[in-house]
Amino acid sequence: MKPLPQTTLLAFIFLAPALLLLGAFTFYPMIYGVYLGFTEYGGARFAQGLGPKFVGLDNFRTLAGDELFWKGIANSLRYLLVVPVLQLASLAVAVLVNTQIPGIAFFRGAFYVPVVTSISLAAVMWEWVYNKDGTLNWLLEKLHVFSAGQGLSWLGNENTALYAVMFVTFWRGFGYYMVLYLAGLQGIPGELEEAARLDGATRWQLFWKITVPMMRPTILLCSLLSTIAALRALEEIVVLTNGGPLNSTYTSLMYVYSKAFQGFNFDYGLASAAGLVVSIVALGLSFVNFRFFGEQRSDS
Amino acid sequence: MTTLTPRIVPRAVKPSSQRQQKSGRLVLRYALLSVILLFALFPFLWTLAIALTDKGAGGGSSIYDFPASLFPRHLTLNNFFDVYKTFSLGKYILNSVSISALTVIGTLVVSALAAYPLARFEFPGRKLIFTVIIATLVLPGETNFIVNTLTLQKLHLLGTHLGVVLPTVATAFGIFLMRQAFMGVPQALVEAARLDGASEARILWSVMLPLTVPSMAALAIFTLVTSWNAYFWPSLVLSSAPDSVPLSVAVLKLKGQFNYDPFNVAAGSLIMMVPILIIFLFAQRYFMRGLEGAVK
User: Fold this and answer.
1) pTM metric for this prediction
2) Residue B10: DSSP 8-state
């Protein structure tokens, strides 16, 4: 059946609000952001009502010479350490809750609570945990890791701050990926495991030879999501440490944010250029993820 | 790996050693689950304990007085009233309600309208438009917040709730979820309505929407929680309008106050969390379903 012209018109009338909003607030900023990366556009020009001025690769040269930017990139890459830990733990927890024992719905729900916790609330609570007098040190003293009074201020120490923030990301994330993995686990046909068990496979073998290969698409999706999320981690850092102490939690996106909105210069051009670099790194890492988890599927 | 146990058909008689092994595994599973439970909920439990502590009693009580601060002896709700009064939390609660309501309504309207033709119409460009919308999920959006604040400034929406809401209501997730739901509505019902002379808008309103209530509920709840909790974007848009900020932004400001009172901060934080917890308690299924739908 050939589409009627009025159907087409109606379709676009229905689609108009979504397309308009996506165009204005998703696609336009993506394209204009790339352009801004090649311009000089900051507080001064903005105040005078001047538009951005094309300056070629100047911003990228500035970035290349800016130690803080490299520190941001290094910290962002370090932040990726949270991905494998988070994915393994979430998969393990999903396996643990993939059962019908009494009370399991309660556990599943409770594990999801950190996911629906606002980052501002998480910041309040975790700062008390990480405080020099906080519960973490108290626990470690009880376990005789530290002697009394030797505890660290976890967010105030440049060697631990980044890991402390990453741990909050972990806390807020594991319930989310648990649900995704649980959906994947419940999609594995029971006969497959039954057959393997009859052949005398151990639980360990079942997990590595059946569960993991069957879960590969879910693992790909989750590690992709979590890689991009880790690279884009910004909220946690803004509310917990704001990049400090001594820039030890200064990530590449923190650089973008602080160049654009903190201090007095509002350097949108430089911030956009930095954002462009982060975007390219993100795309590259997504590609690596696809190669790593996508390729192996073809041999089985 | 004990996942497999429920699928085994239980045999009538089992050797006792095997039964022991099985109950041992069950105990181990509950033990592990409890440890994770403590990890997931500990920050809340402690915050709750602090919020309920009577700061007047036992002179100079500190939140770091372990283990006493974990198990307060004199319980009180005074901190909640105190923080509500001193920081006029009512104003911020109204802001949160306004922003969240606008976001939920906007998201439902925009998603349903866009999803209907994508699910049920034949028209040129349908596939392309759908692909473009889905592509927003993977395209890099790291710097969108910079350009979007500039755009809002030009539209004179910076510092308004509408400015917070507008850029967030059209999402690939919402459109995708509603499209899936509409595709599941039997074609016969649509044809019957068309034969009765119903307009497409009418069909969307009185055939499609009533039949897809669970998906709309899932989308509404998901959107509500996200917008209620959002911190970064509202704080950016409303940085010049401190009286219009939602609770999530206000709570962190509480913490920065110079007469910082942890008991009040804990109480304020929990006031913010309570609506979400209640919604989550009643609508947990929708969350999980919405997420699962997104994977498949």
Assistant:
1) 0.87
2) P
